[in-house]
């Protein structure tokens, strides 16, 4: 379809240029409010923050047209990446914490969301809307409120530990426990301390032993919290995706003799790929930017194992009065998110060699072009159906 | 192609507009709008402990407004540091604000604060420790609003139950240790305090140490090691537990729910206990002295005035009014803070004998280390304190030493 429209587009432009021009003006006029709002509240602050990340602005007056502000080049970025400083170590630790957070939250919440969506999408299920509402409910509640509740639930003598106690399990002091879970597991296996050489400061000033610490016990609570609150939202996305899959597809699978599990993995899941991509991308972005929960738990004894780059940026800007470093952290975080999204896009596209990825699409287009040339309306290749 | 060119032009236009409006907004919010004559109204940003404080400050501001004819708008911040930073960045800082001891050096070193305090009539009447806290490079910058020190808070019921008497009240490290041992039984632990430098540091002071001595970092001194090892001894004996290990958020909560018989806390514990645990009976004594004598920390706010504002003179008059002995005693009555001048504090100690121990501590109290950039190091030290039991005290302090030296060097450079 795209090939057709590009080939015909130039003709009307040359013939009725003025009319098209008027349309374009009207179009810009209509989008102007949105462009202005996005420009003032999104583009300009981002540009300003990028500028601040290259200066030594101390937070006084405007960072623009200010004689006291000097451009320091990449100094702020060096402070968090190459300098032998405490700030770098704090940054490295926040990256470590968030990597484990992302690694656990994104797969768990996606799997749970998909599972819930499939369950509430069943035709046989009674009280569907009740379950949908129930599963979606945690997403509606504010993260601050839920974190507050979790702080109580997972207190030293909180409900969770009472229940564990009733089962004769001695629960940990969740939010006060900075031990990494991998360290704990290694401890069970008899590895108590770092192997020789692993305690030296390594990448971003954090030792190899600390890099493999795993999410701390306190972080595990936040991981449970994130999975609990966000899987409802993503369930909704999957549900929309599932409802786009016609009933006939499932029937065809049944006719071909596929069981429910085979149908799910070979038919439903591939057809949900666009939704899966959306959910994974949103999940990655959301988890890398985690802030609310970290801000609320900043006073707990295990707080250093909970910090995230977003929280560190806030802390550097408003507690340490280092807006330049804060902006630099924000942009490094931005680059990380972009990189992660690209990697994930590439991984999802790669598995697609048989008809749904980006490269095959070009082939389809060519094929479509040929088909159009021949003026033969033959059924397209199986894969192309998804894009039309 | 045509579209993208148009798009970029529009984007550039929007950007220019946005930036222009940004810088324009900055100028508008600032001093340029203020008339040249004495200011007609002031804004005051406070970090309030609650309704009582907000009301009392507003009442004081109104009283001054009636006298001077200058209206004062009191705004209680929900996050003082953040709102203050935003105000300064937008060139619309409040005319008077609370400036915490922990942020003071950072703000002063960045030149945010008007140095006015030495011009006040009562500049000589403040406690010397507080003047020290709010001086930058030898200059007394802003007037201390009030202060708090740390004392030893004792649950009198548990004290009596354990068979202890007035004579057993700890006066040195040994008697503190033995009292804590006697009080520890069952679910009750003898002593508790927040696992942080702002509590533990008092033992370092009592041992004759401290993180800094003038401009020298002395974190790894033998005195500090002695202090940390004493605390480790209490931890290992089980007579000292951190609030988190007692299922409490802070020392006052552990004390209130009866899981700690003694805590090291400040005067704010009184209000918290009255609200949440009205049945707990307690008394406050001075902290026991260490090998090098008594030692405690003082925490304070000052009345900050932004540098170079045209309202500064008017704001200074307001501060002079607010720091007068009469007004400070009114604040003391309203929300329990200790006046920052020695004369008013003496009156306060007579009026509220139950808080006399906190006032007495002011004679030898010092302010915790808080120069610009020290906060991160103190944060690291706090992390180490939570896992102090079984740790190597010397190694912990060596790390603080090197980090604090680096931070101090950076703050000087």
Q: What this model shows, in words?
A:
- The complex is a heterodimer of chains A (388) and B (413).
- Chain A is an all-alpha fold and 388 residues long.
- Chain A is built from 18 helices and no strands.
- Chain A has helices at 2-8, 10-15, 17-52, 75-81, 86-120, 128-140, 143-153, 159-166, 181-188, 208-211, 217-244, 247-255, 260-271, 273-288, 292-296, 309-318, 323-350, 358-373.
- In chain A, helix 16 (309-318) runs antiparallel to helix 17 (323-350).
- Chain A is globular and about 75 Å long.
- The N and C termini of chain A lie close together (8 Å).
- Residues 1-15 and 353-388 of chain A have low confidence and may be disordered.
- Chain B is globular and about 65 Å long.
- Chain B starts with a helix and ends with a helix.
- The model of chain B is unreliable at 14-36 (pLDDT under 50).
- Chain B is α/β, with parallel strands linked by helices.
- Chain B has 17 helices and 15 strands.
- At the A-B interface, helix 3 and helix 5 of A face helix 1, helix 3, helix 4, helix 16 and helix 17 of B.
Total of helices of chain A: 18
* End-to-end distance of chain B: 51 Å
Can you tell me the residue ranges of chain B where pLDDT is under 50 for at least 5 consecutive residues? 14-36
Q: Quaternary arrangement of the chains shown?
A: heterodimer
What string, H for helix and E for strand, traces the elements of chain A in order? HHHHHHHHHHHHHHHHHH
The count of strands of chain A amounts to: 0
First-to-last CA distance of chain A: 8 Å
Strand order, sheet with most strands of chain B? 2-1-3-14-6-15
Taken from the alpha-carbon principal axes, the silhouette of chain A is globular
Strand content of chain A: under 5%
Give the radius of gyration of chain A.
26 Å
Unreliable residue runs of chain A = 1-15, 353-388
């Amino acid at each position: 379809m795209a090939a057709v429209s590009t080939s015909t587009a130039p003709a009307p432009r040359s013939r009725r240029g003025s009319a098209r021009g008027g349309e374009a003006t009207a179009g810009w006029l209509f989008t102007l409010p949105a462009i202005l709002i996005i420009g003032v509240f999104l583009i300009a602050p981002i540009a300003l923050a990028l500028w601040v990340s290259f200066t030594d602005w101390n937070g006084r007056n405007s960072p623009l047209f200010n004689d006291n502000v000097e451009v320091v080049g990449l100094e702020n970025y060096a402070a968090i990446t190459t300098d032998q400083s405490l700030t770098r170590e704090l940054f490295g630790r926040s990256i470590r914490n968030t990597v484990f957070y992302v690694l656990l939250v994104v797969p768990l919440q996606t799997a749970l969301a998909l599972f819930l969506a499939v369950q509430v999408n069943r035709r046989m299920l009674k009280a569907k809307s009740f379950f949908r509402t129930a599963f979606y409910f945690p997403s509606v509640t504010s993260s601050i409120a839920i974190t507050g509740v979790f702080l109580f639930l997972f207190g030293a003598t909180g409900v969770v530990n009472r229940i564990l106690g009733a089962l004769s399990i001695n629960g940990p002091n969740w939010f006060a426990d900075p031990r990494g879970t991998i360290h704990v597991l290694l401890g069970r296996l008899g590895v108590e301390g770092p192997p020789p050489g692993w305690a030296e400061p390594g990448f971003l000033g954090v030792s190899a032993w600390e890099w493999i610490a795993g999410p701390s016990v306190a972080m595990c609570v936040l991981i449970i919290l994130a999975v609990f609150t966000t899987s409802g939202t993503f369930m909704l996305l999957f549900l929309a995706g599932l409802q786009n899959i016609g009933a006939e597809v499932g029937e065809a699978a049944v006719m071909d003799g596929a069981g429910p599990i085979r149908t799910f993995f070979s038919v439903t899941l591939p057809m949900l790929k666009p939704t899966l991509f959306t959910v994974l991308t949103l999940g990655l972005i959301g988890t890398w930017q985690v802030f609310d929960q970290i801000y609320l738990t900043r006073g707990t004894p295990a707080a250093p194992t909970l910090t995230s780059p977003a929280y560190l940026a806030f802390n550097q800007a408003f507690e340490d009065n280092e807006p330049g470093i804060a902006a630099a952290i924000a942009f490094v975080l931005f680059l990380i998110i972009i990189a992660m999204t690209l990697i994930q896009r590439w991984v999802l596209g790669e598995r697609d060699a048989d008809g749904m990825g980006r490269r095959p699409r070009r082939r389809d287009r060519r094929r479509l072009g040929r088909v159009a040339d021949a003026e033969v309306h033959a059924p397209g290749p199986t894969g192309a159906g998804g894009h039309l | 192609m045509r579209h993208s060119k148009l798009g970029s032009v529009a984007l550039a236009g929007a950007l220019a507009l946005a930036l222009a409006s940004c810088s324009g907004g900055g100028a508008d919010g600032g001093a340029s709008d203020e008339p040249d004559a004495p200011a007609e109204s002031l804004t005051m940003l406070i970090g309030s402990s609650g309704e009582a404080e907000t009301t009392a400050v507003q009442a004081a501001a109104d009283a001054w407004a009636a006298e001077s004819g200058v209206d004062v708008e009191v705004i209680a911040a929900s996050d003082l540091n953040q709102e203050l930073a935003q105000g300064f960045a937008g060139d619309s800082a409040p005319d008077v604000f609370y400036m915490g001891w922990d942020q003071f050096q950072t703000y002063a070193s960045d030149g945010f604060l008007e140095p006015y305090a030495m011009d006040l009539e009562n500049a000589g009447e403040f406690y010397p420790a507080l003047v020290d806290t709010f001086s930058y490079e030898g200059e007394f910058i802003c007037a201390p609003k009030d202060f708090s020190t740390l004392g030893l808070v004792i649950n009198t019921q548990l004290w009596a139950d354990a068979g202890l008497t007035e004579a057993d009240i700890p006066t040195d490290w040994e008697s503190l240790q033995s009292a804590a041992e006697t009080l520890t039984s069952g679910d009750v632990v003898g002593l508790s305090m927040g696992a942080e430098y702002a509590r533990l540091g008092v033992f370092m002071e009592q041992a004759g140490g401290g993180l800094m001595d003038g401009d020298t970092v002395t974190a790894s001194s033998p005195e500090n090691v002695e202090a940390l090892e004493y605390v480790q001894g209490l931890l290992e004996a089980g007579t000292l537990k951190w609030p988190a290990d007692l299922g409490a958020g802070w020392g006052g909560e552990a004390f209130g729910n009866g899981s700690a018989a003694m805590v090291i806390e400040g005067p704010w514990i009184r209000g918290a206990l009255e609200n949440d645990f009205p049945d707990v009976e307690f008394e406050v004594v001075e902290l026991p002295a260490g090998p090098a004598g008594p030692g405690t920390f003082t925490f304070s706010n000052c009345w900050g005035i932004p540098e170079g504002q045209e309202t500064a003179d008017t704001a200074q008059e307001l501060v002079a009014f607010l720091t007068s002995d009469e007004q400070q005693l009114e604040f003391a009555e309203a929300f329990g803070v200790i006046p920052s001048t020695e004369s008013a504090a003496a009156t306060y100690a007579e009026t509220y004998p139950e808080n006399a121990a906190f006032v007495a501590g002011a004679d030898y109290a010092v302010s915790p280390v808080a120069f610009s950039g020290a906060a991160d190091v103190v944060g690291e030290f706090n992390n180490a304190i939570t896992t102090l039991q079984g740790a190597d005290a010397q190694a912990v302090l060596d790390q603080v030493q090197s980090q604090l030296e680096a931070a101090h060097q950076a703050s000087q450079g």
